[in-house]
């Protein structure tokens, strides 16, 4: 076999491609890195200005508004528990990383999903790329991310964005495509433009599905925090990583549990946000 | 017949679904059948060389079983489906050649559509649903609210503005569908199986209301249905479709009485004629006499026609009652006026009464039933023989235009008068 088919040097192609990008677009990556770092650190600084009890109350209030009282109470107790364990600041750092990467994932993912739902060709191109993003082991793209953005929170954000964006795109496409055909016909029959059809009918009706995608993106982004900490992203993930490497089982559980609490809070809040405000009808 | 100005002209319009539409179109022109074309090219012929006109203000029903192409045909009228070949004109404007913007304008202003499964937007209130067509035209909020509210009132849904579609019953939801289509004040209303999803009682109510709305607003309506009874009930004219072909176009009577081929014949053989035909269809010319002509003239007229009773009208031809030959004879002998022996309590019906509602009265009344219009003018009479003949499907008992000639022949009356005095 070796004789018949010469081995194509894929690996060295990729290496030289990365090198080429770093040398020619270094300033672009620096700009992106600066922006991401600024966003995450800014968010942490902002949240840290507020006393922990007040912030926990604020989160509980948000939970109450968008979902139920039960979840609001859980939010308050859970966050105060994390504070009590002494991981408040680490939690804020993790939250900032998650929020930043999810916002980026949504800002890119939702429009891409809408575009894909309108153009079959776009969808055909997007789908395999999404498969790649979801199945490629995260460490593989963490490495070039370090070349592009150096060690720290930024490659962590980038890895989270890559890993967490696919469900938002997929479920946005799915949600829009699932809008019943006769409703589409109705919008057409009354003379809607494509834009009017999307804004007034398709996107509002796809909202629960899109929100399910957002929810999944948040969860996937949370699942990346430990991996992100390996390239130097601070936060609860870093605490977990450290406790594991130092064989501190107890601390590992404490920090792990804190991540779980945050995950449950974010999950329940976003789940309910998708279902509410549909005029009494849940699809 | 109403004014015959053409609202929609469809000429040789064909829709072929699938690949190889060009080749399929060519084969179609060579006279190949739908199934042959499917076998040779894999393309499906949806509608085949449809040609018809829809007149301004009529209810034109396109009827056929599922798969006959009726939904495709109606969707080509507003180009929800683009025709493969042919021409469609609405008010002389070519629809097929329009660009996106012109088409949008036509859809916004000229054509409204009502859907089988209502197609209401579940996330919008009833009012917002009704406003939709106006909203996308950028009409100011107050104005569109006023129009939508009026439209909802027309369909009997005032007070439901703030509800959501899921809170309404099927019949009410379809009223919203109708209100939404009417809010734009379109000239043409396309109704695709609009009542098919409703249960029979509600469906009949909706048909009645549609007829009433049509009477009041005079819109041109294209109504799609697979239900022959519905087609016969509401259609001014009916186009019957089979396998993409229009097999017959005609008034309900023409379709029932003169089916153009075996298919139509089989289709209509189970129709309950008594629910389709009306008094106007089967009435006969009535003999009548003006009241001031006196009993003697009435008697002579009856003798001459060989009948035992005659209708009496006033000078304005309004029906007053009837008189029997016996009473007229008594009156002549005793010198009484015709008015004094008049039987005023006589059975009447309107020309629109369906036959099934006549049976009871016709079977018991000694005097033939009088058909009168809204002004109480005598239009004709119902005789038992014609009723039975029409139900048996005998075309000679049917008045196609639902009228019989009803002039009072004064010349003849004068002759009679002279001869009776002489």
Describe the structure.
The complex is a heterodimer of chains A (283) and B (422). With 283 residues, chain A is an all-alpha fold. Chain A has one domain (22-275): Orthogonal Bundle (MetI-like fold). Chain A is built from twelve helices and no strands. Chain A has helices at residues 10-49, 52-66, 69-85, 88-118, 120-135, 138-149, 153-177, 181-189, 194-223, 225-230, 236-245, 249-275. In chain A, helix 6 (138-149) crosses helix 7 (153-177) and helix 11 runs antiparallel to helix 12. Chain A starts with 9 loop residues before the first helix and ends in an 8-residue tail after the last helix. Residues 277-283 of chain A have low confidence and may be disordered. With 422 residues, chain B is α/β, with parallel strands linked by helices. Chain B folds into two domains: 6-110 and 186-271, 3-Layer(aba) Sandwich (Rossmann fold), CATH 3.40.50; 279-421, CBS-domain (Roll), CATH 3.10.580. Chain B is built from 18 helices and 16 strands. In chain B, the strands form four sheets. A six-stranded mixed beta sheet of chain B has the order 6-7-8-3-9-10, with helices on both faces. A four-stranded antiparallel beta sheet of chain B has the order 2-1-4-5, sandwiched between helices. The longest helix of chain B is centred in the middle third of the chain and has 18 residues, at 200-217. The two termini of chain B are 45 Å apart. Chains A and B meet through helix 8 and helix 9 of A and helix 4, strand 6 and helix 5 of B.
